[in-house]
Amino acid sequence: MSGANDSGSQVNLGVFGWLNRLMLGLIVAALMAMIVLKYLPLIRKNESMSREMQTRQQEVQALESQVARNQARIEALRSDPRTVEREAREQLGLAKPDEQVVTFQPAGK
């Protein structure tokens, strides 16, 4: 007897089987939507922070470049007397005894 029951144990659910699969799909879709909605603000914050970090890295590169230029200028002022002389002439308006200093003003002033 049990052999006869085993061969016919599959039951055709028809519409209910289709509705069960549909319900399962809707539940999975709802869970996926909840996960996306929960993590969407974090994703946006991550993108914002990434853009800010990129901006900061560009600022750091610009500052590092400026530091390198300043270090080169300091080294030149320490080791090259001509550089010191040129800086004194430009910034302080100094001249040798037999020279005259001429300064130009921008137009409109």
Broad structural category:
mainly alpha
Number of strands: 0
Distance separating the two termini: 115 Å
Shape: rod-shaped
* Helix residue percentage: over 70%
* Integer-rounded radius of gyration: 40 Å
How many domain regions?
Answer: 1
Poorly predicted residue ranges: none
The total count of helices amounts to: 3
| Proportion of residues in extended strands | under 5%
Largest sheet: none
- N-to-C order of helices and strands: HHH
Name the average pLDDT.
86
Task: Describe the model.
The chain is mainly alpha-helical. The protein has one domain. The chain has helices at 2-7, 15-79, 81-92. Helix 2 (15-79) packs across helix 3 (81-92). The mean pLDDT is 86.
Please provide a brief summary of the model.
The chain is mainly α and 109 residues long.
Task: Describe how the helices and strands are arranged.
Layout: H1 2-7, H2 15-79, H3 81-92
Helix pairs in contact: 2-3
What attributes characterize this protein structure?
109 residues; mainly alpha; 3 helices
